[in-house]
Amino acid sequence: xxxxxxxxxxxxxxxxxxxxxxxxxxxxxxxxxxxxxxxxxxxxxxxxxxxxxxxxxxxxxxxxxxxxxxxxxxxxxxxxxxxxxxxxxxxxxxxxxxxxxxxxxxxxxxxxxxxxxxxxxxxxxxxxxxxxxxxxxxxxxxxxxxxxxxxxxxxxxxxxxxxxxxxxxxxxxxxxxxxxxxxxxxxxxxxxxxxxxxxxxxxxxxxxxxxxxxxxxxxxxxxxxxxxxxxxxxxxxxxxxxxxxxxxxxxxxxxxxxxxxxxxxxxxxxxxxxxxxxxxxxxxxxxxxxxxxxxxxxxxxxxxxxxxxxxxxxxxxxxxxxxxxxxxxxxxxxxxxxxxxxxxxxxxxxxxxxxxxxxxxxxxxxxxxxxxxxxxxxxxxxxxxxxxxxxxxxxxxxxxxxxxxxxxxxxxxxxxxxxxxxxxxxxxxxxxxxxxxxxxxxxxxxxxxxxxxxxxxxxxxxxxxxxxxxxxxxxxxxxxxxxxxxxxxxxxxxxxxxxxxxxxxxxxxxxxxxx
Length: 515
What we know:
Shape: globular
Order of helices and strands: EHEHHEHEHEHEEHEEEHHHHHHHHHH
Number of strands: 10
Distance between the termini: 61 Å
Structural class: alpha/beta
Strand order of the largest sheet: 1-2-3-4-5-6-7-8
Oligomer: single chain
Radius of gyration: 24 Å
């Protein structure tokens, strides 16, 4: 076991380019001792964007300059290879290839000179316009790019970026090991193990944020290369902080493990585009993150006691504080049962309703737990071809989510007098939304899994026409419930048409089965 290292990086990652929102982020950062800020997604994804769009570059420099004055280092995201030309001259041994790669180097020069307050870049390869893995590697033949293995390509690009960012401009290079599968992840690990002058960023999970995935296999696996982790505190795939999802126990589970592997800090996602954790009841997650980095021996009970007093003015020993803590703890258990199915991903963006049932079919396999844990393969097979027992287990799980959501709402009403009016009102509307979403996801599960069962075991009672038609009718009714949420939660209200599309798709799927 490694010695626990000092947690040098206490960072946030933001997606949303609204200047007022970014001001809120910077105003909040000192409260949480933030010293590292990553600008990503709708702010910047490719390094070239800061010079191609002058307003974007001005925004980045403005945030970076203010951050630097606050003692916070700022970093911009950069995907490579940044070209959509599938026939780009990648051979670095050719004249054309030398020109191509020098243009990539120059993109970093131009952006970092236009945004001089930026401290460095976060380089990554997965989800790039052209990925290093796209052209098959042929070690014994082909040009100077084709002969390179995936790991050699990753190292080549890292060398190239470091030669400008680190060596010419004296700025920092972080490299994310984001990937789309085990072989890609391994190629990054092979390329950058014992690589000096960079810091690796690994998600706490091996790929996308999934609470039931194992810890990433690359944690502690990069040798002497320093490593930090990335964790989602907003809930991209479990509600995006529109509903309460309290993560102290989860943060402790992930971050304590990471520290035991020798990581030297962490960066937390605090928003999902326009939906942010800041200013919501889920802001407890930002506090938990900061406390775990500050003191790895802190407990969830201590975090809750401190937060209830700090944020809601509740005495730790009081009944109201205990009730609020129970509400917060149940919120995470509710979210796991609401959004996940027996611990598995179904459709990818679980916070948004799918328009087609094929999205669910594909997600079960494409985002399977079995990609990272072979012991999950039997359950994956059952989810692909469900039996009655599994469908009933899923129904029980979704019913439990509804029950937990309703219990939370009732418990909150019971301590109304102990809370400030504004705090109660905000919690109440979010807990009511959680009840509604739990019921909607319950009916989606009923309809989808009953139809899947009818495709596989039509004689089972849960595959009866009456039960399936009842579920399909309920989906239509629930679409209007979502639409009514538009005034309070515009993003949720937009899901109503997606639910209508899903109901139509499921109805057509069932009709085809009956022909």
